[in-house]
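Running low. Invent one:
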Amino acid sequence: MARFEIHTIAPDNTQRILIYDNEASTLTWEDGEPVVPYAPAVFADASVISSTAPGTKGLIRTLKISLGLSCNYACSYCSQRFVPHAENTGPQDVADFLQQLTASVEAPPGRIEFWGGEPLVYLKTLRPLANALRELYPAAQFSIITNGSLLTRDINAWLDETGFSVGLSHDGPGQSARGPDPLDDPDRRDAIFDLYRRLHPKGKISINPMISAHNPSRGAVQAWLQARFGEDVQIGEGAFIDPYDEGGIAATFHTPEEHARFRRHAFADLRNGAASRFAIASSKVLDFIQSIREQRPARAVGQKCGMDRSDNIAVDLKGNVLTCQNVSAAAQAPNGEPHRIGHLSDLKEVSMRSATHWRHRPQCPGCPVLQLCKGSCMFLEGALWQAGCDAAYSDNAVFLAAAIEFLTGCVPVFIEGDIPPERKDVFGFIQQGTSDPPKKRVIPIQAVEAVTP
């Protein structure tokens, strides 16, 4: 059990202390009174996978199909940038893949995702594959994420008619980290807005930015996107990046001051509505509130990506089952295990040894944002995992603070518990150089006003 004293500032500038247990999902005032009435729910235990307790696959609810890792862009923080490519596949592989799939699945998948690289690089494969899958599974949700640079009006019409939901990758004012802005090219801009006009009224398109040290403000991203796509733009993704290589590490924060500054600004964006179009803003806050109301135990918390679940599966067109859609059958996980974890033709033999559940990470069980973070990337190790952990802590501490203020009206400023000193001072309001909680002093209201709309 990990128990935390959360020191907060109330609206009247008095200090109040909350007690939070991340294992049992309880949040009480200092006298033991629950912040909200509990309505405990029944939860199944998550699979605690590792190289010695491998994960399995069974009934497929979400099917992620990797068409390949080729892309016409070169994002500086791309998770696939240095992943070795597996054997090329093409339209000639579609029939065999479909035969393997239909022979293996016990029930129609509810969701099918088509992944690259840039999936539209593989259009000659994507079209016959998606058309056939739509005939096989007419009720399945189809989704694709694209950088938008290869869209045409013909492709747009097909995506619309086939029933795709589309995530358009764009970092707004930080787009230079991805490459050229397709909105600067008249033809590409025309195609992007044609698709947007088709799908936006149906709620089937979002603009998907990533947050990084070079693009840290959700408020700035939202303003940029609203100026081009309208006030009601739906913004997907929106989390701080996971670093998968040196480029990713370069796009994270490196000092406690940088982390604290990000948390201050990100919290202010939440409080003043500047990040209101980000789906992640509401989903994270509501998920934490729900965890408290239903007392979701930590044992029920799986990995954030969901790929540790037995009913979520990533495959390539050769039928290889993969750790996730961002790797290939030719790649090796940082723990030395292959990312090829089995084959579609023999799902009962799939064995995911390439991932590590958060329960096996020393820092995760005793972390106050565990219920929000859910363990960061499940296959990173070493310095990359640590950098990702640090970034995920800062990002999720903001959502934790927003959820607590929503529930109590009080702003968390200090978390007392067995965590690194630089993580205790939520917004950098406490005197630098001390890890002591502010038990006998009140944080100046001017400090809290720094994150007040």
Remarks:
- The chain has a mean pLDDT of 93.
- The first strand starts at residue 3 and ends at 9.
